[in-house]
């Protein structure tokens, strides 16, 4: 990391717990006791509030709805489950994919969900009705990642066919096929106004694309070229947050091709584990880890704020609530649960 980089201010970033007895095949939320109190110098402390049980195979993706009322989950059991984000209660289960589901994304109005699967399809679901409304065909191998643009009229997807596809949601047709990478594409996202797409892949490259033309505007790569697991724009789109399989998360200024912040301490050498920005006034970065823990860093200082313990396997996916200090996390085979961690402010001890 370049230590001379000044702080990123707010306007730059913004424009051993016991569960209740639940059978593993049931959908249920279990309240759980509070975590160990924070260290004296911590102001925000997360503690576990609910354990959500219902998936029978690893959960691959978690996404809060835009209004924060609902948490969507998907996984290798071919199911999408919708949960009340405030109570942890199951609301609905969506079925239709023929193979495991790798990713899900909400439309910005919260009315639709998109999902992608090893069955090579992109599917769109009506949240209110709980029904599938479109099945998009075109990828020639497993589809691994998906996201909506802010207007929710376009989707971007990527997968093991090494392409990035841009879809017209209304017509259900491919608009562009970008020969994006030389290895499977692991993550795709639009920026805040939909004019740019960012992608990353197992080839270690991060690429910025012009949405309209499909032209590659910039390629970022770290000197050691680690496998890239996940990438997303900062809220104002001036930076991209990149998770790589060298147990490092980097914040890049893609205009200058400079890494301005580095977050370390977690373990990530095997799986594609995402990192997220907080959406509240307390600026932090969150990631899962292969040591079964959730890591929370101060955005500015890159210092660890808290390590959340309780899962019993690799944490494959996390998400942060759009308006509250709530983190959702989910783990692999030895666990299969989703946990909701609620943050509270604590006063430093003098």
Blueprint of the fold:
Elements: H1 10-13, E1 28-31, E2 44-53, E3 59-64, E4 70-75, E5 79-84, E6 90-95, E7 101-106, E8 112-117, E9 121-126, E10 131-137, E11 143-148, E12 154-159, E13 164-168, E14 173-178, E15 185-190, E16 196-201, E17 206-210, E18 216-220, E19 228-233, E20 240-244, E21 248-253, E22 258-264, E23 275-277, E24 284-287, E25 294-298, E26 304-308, E27 315-320, E28 326-331, E29 338-345
Antiparallel strand pairs: 1-2, 2-29, 3-4, 4-5, 5-6, 7-8, 8-9, 9-10, 11-12, 12-13, 13-14, 15-16, 16-17, 17-18, 19-20, 20-21, 21-22, 23-24, 24-25, 25-26, 27-28, 28-29
Keywords: Repeat, WD repeat
Biased composition (Polar residues): 15-28
Organism: Lentinula detonsa
Structure description:
The protein is mainly beta and 350 residues long. 1% of the residues lie in helices and 48% in strands. The chain contains one helix and 29 strands. It has one helix at 10-13, and strands spanning 28-31, 44-53, 59-64, 70-75, 79-84, 90-95, 101-106, 112-117, 121-126, 131-137, 143-148, 154-159, 164-168, 173-178, 185-190, 196-201, 206-210, 216-220, 228-233, 240-244, 248-253, 258-264, 275-277, 284-287, 294-298, 304-308, 315-320, 326-331, 338-345. It has a five-stranded antiparallel β-sheet with strand order 1-2-29-28-27, with no helix packed on it. The protein has a four-stranded antiparallel β-sheet with strand order 3-4-5-6, with no helix packed on it. A four-stranded antiparallel β-sheet has the order 7-8-9-10, with no helix packed on it. The chain is globular, with a radius of gyration of 19 Å. This is WD40 repeat-containing protein. Residues 52-341 form the WDR5-like beta-propeller domain.
